[in-house]
Design goal:
Number of domains: 1
Strand content: 5-15%
Shape: globular
Strand order of the largest sheet: 1-2-5
Radius of gyration: 13 Å
Bound molecules: iron/sulfur cluster
Order of helices and strands: EHHEEEHEHHH
Helix content: 40-55%
Number of strands: 5
Number of helices: 6
Largest sheet: 3 strands, mixed
Distance between the termini: 25 Å
């Protein structure tokens, strides 16, 4: 599957909230499948991905907040020493994002600009348990 780098954070922080019912249902289905198959290969891309597919802000393959999400993607790639185009298992990539970002101050510096930040900073990440 294909994911934007910052979605390695959002998917771990997901607590049932999202942009629309279709979006949250799609996120839930993706996570259910990834938890059942944690070795699923994930390729990082800096454009609309498998999660964006059900997002109301995806306008013909372009995110309405393209500038903001590009900054989030760049922040994640930099902090986790990852590259666009890189492929790894869901398990390996989320673990890397957890250790280098979610469990460090990088989470706050990367995510503070996001409208969901107040919620995400209260949400226990899947792998923080
Ligand atoms: S604050 Fe925004 S970018 Fe960061 S994990 Fe939450 S939803 Fe994703
Ligand atoms: S289209 Fe934009 S707002 Fe929607 S999930 Fe993708 S990156 Fe996030």
């Amino acid at each position: 599957m294909f994911l934007r780098p910052h979605h390695l954070l959002c998917m771990q922080k997901f607590s049932g909230h999202g942009y629309s019912l279709a979006f949250t249902a799609h996120m839930t289905a993706l996570l259910h499948n990834l938890h059942a198959h944690p070795d699923t290969p994930v390729t990082l891309i800096c454009r609309c991905d498998d999660l964006c597919a059900a997002c109301p802000h995806n306008q013909d393959g372009i995110c309405e907040s393209a500038e903001k999400v590009a900054r989030l993607d760049a922040g994640v790639l930099n902090a986790a020493s990852l590259s666009a185009g890189e492929t790894g298992s869901w398990n390996a990539l989320t673990e890397r994002a957890r250790r280098s970002i979610l469990l460090t101050d990088a989470f706050h510096s990367i995510c503070a600009c996001c409208e969901w930040y107040p919620l995400c900073r209260q949400t226990e990440a899947e792998y923080e348990r």
